[in-house]
């Protein structure tokens, strides 16, 4: 009987220590992620993930009561998203309209109305140059842009690069970069880019 009492105490103590460790780790990691999101102006993009959210996901989508969580509309591969209806009977576009300032996903932008002769650097050339950049230079460029430029300006440059790079777009990107980078940093950036 003493052995059973000892075993029960050990199991209880282990469960308590494990629970406290998991909860503390969860709180620290969650605070760290929120701080990182705040630095990039995305604090409202995703709310904090609660411990119950994770436990629900790990439990196969079952809620606290053991009932299945409501499933989102099932989409088979290749099915048009516009044809899918949400549980409320509306299409995703009606329920969540696309904001006016939304940027297209890389490679999904429509071709500009200008002529092909107008392109300064084509999207294929940009992808080739991007693939040729060394990891060291890539990190130097990334560190320079992320630390110096606000997220809105990084998005603006990304939008300019979306379907090729015209002379006008190059001037716009250059003006944005010169506004936030020192002349030395701008010269270093150009030096790195001209290698490739």
Commentary on this structure:
- The structure is a single chain.
- With 196 residues, the protein is mostly helical.
- The chain folds into two domains: 2-68; 116-194, no CATH class.
- Helices cover 57% and strands 3% of the residues.
- It has eight helices and two strands; from the N terminus they run H-H-H-E-H-H-H-E-H-H.
- It has a two-stranded antiparallel ribbon with strand order 1-2.
- Helix 6 packs antiparallel against helix 7 (167-180).
The helix fraction, in percent, is 55-70%
The CA-CA distance between the termini, in Å, is 76 Å
Average pLDDT across residues? Answer: 75
What count of structural domains? 2
The percentage of residues in β strands lies in: under 5%
SS elements, strand count: 2
Write down the Rg.
Answer: 25 Å
Order of helices and strands: HHHEHHHEHH
- Biggest β-sheet: strands ordered side by side in the sheet: 1-2
The dominant shape is: elongated
Main sheet attributes: strand count, strand direction, barrel closure: 2 strands, antiparallel
Structural class: mainly alpha
Give the low-confidence spans: 63-83, 106-117
Number of separate helices: 8
How would you sum up this structure in a few lines?
The protein has 196 residues and is an all-alpha fold. The protein is 57% helix and 3% strand. It folds into 2 domains: 2-68; 116-194, no CATH class.
Topology:
Blueprint: H1 2-39, H2 51-58, H3 92-95, E1 119-121, H4 123-132, H5 135-148, H6 151-161, E2 165-166, H7 167-180, H8 183-194
Antiparallel strand pairs: 1-2
């Amino acid at each position: 009987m003493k052995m059973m009492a000892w075993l029960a105490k050990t199991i209880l103590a282990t469960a308590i220590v494990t629970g406290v460790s998991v909860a503390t780790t969860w709180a620290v990691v969650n605070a760290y992620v929120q701080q990182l999101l705040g630095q990039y102006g995305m604090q409202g993009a995703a709310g904090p993930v609660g411990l119950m959210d994770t436990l629900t996901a790990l439990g196969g989508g079952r809620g606290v009561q053991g009932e299945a969580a409501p499933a989102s509309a099932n989409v088979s591969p290749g099915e048009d998203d516009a044809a899918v209806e949400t549980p409320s009977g509306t299409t995703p576009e009606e329920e969540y309209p696309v904001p006016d300032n939304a940027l297209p996903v890389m490679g999904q932008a429509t071709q500009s109305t200008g002529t092909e002769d107008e392109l300064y650097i084509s999207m294929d050339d940009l992808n080739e140059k991007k693939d040729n950049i060394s990891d060291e230079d890539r990190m130097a460029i990334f560190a320079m842009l992320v630390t110096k430029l606000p997220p809105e300006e990084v998005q603006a440059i990304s939008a300019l690069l979306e379907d090729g790079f015209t002379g006008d777009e190059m001037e716009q990107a250059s003006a944005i970069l010169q506004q936030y980078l020192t002349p030395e940093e701008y010269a270093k950036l150009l030096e790195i880019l001209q290698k490739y």
